[in-house]
Amino acid sequence: MTTKKDGILFTTRFPFSIPFGVVIDVIAISPFSYYMIIGKIPIIEGLVYIALLMALVDLVICRYAGKVIFQKDIIRIRYFFPWRKSYEIGVEKVKSLRTETSAQDFLSNYSIIIFTLDNGEIERKNIVSWYGLKKDVKVIEEKFNAVYHQ
Prior knowledge:
The structure is a single chain. By secondary structure, this protein is an alpha+beta fold. It has helices spanning about 15-35, 45-60, 135-150, and strands spanning about 10, 65-70, 75-80, 85-90, 95-105, 110-115, 120-130. It is built from 3 helices and 7 strands; from the N terminus they run E-H-H-E-E-E-E-E-E-H. The strands form 2 sheets. It has a 4-stranded antiparallel beta sheet with strand order 1-2-3-4, with helices on one face. A 3-stranded antiparallel beta sheet has the order 5-6-7, with helices on one face. Helix 1 (about 15-35) runs antiparallel to helix 2. About 20% of the residues are buried.
């Protein structure tokens, strides 16, 4: 998706695992909420169960779910869950960008974006690509080269 809105040159989409994870959360949390309302489970215990289920969904289904955004001067990796810190780096610091698919399951391609910086350091960031676009990871690399190394 290419747009010029707010200086965005290229952005990927959030992966399919996010709506799938939300559906799983709703299905799993509903019984606990019902039993808390009718008083069969203490509220604190129910809230602990809900928090554990949501953390489990994050770890299993939505791990590293995020999107890559290329702006004029900044490359940003924005993760869906707020407890994963987003990553931002100035384009002038990046010498090259490579991508690798590290693993694959039925929901997503687990990928690594490798930034080689001007000072020789290498930064690795995990991200989950959109389901069904197995070449999406390579598209990030191609778009980086097209946008910033013309």
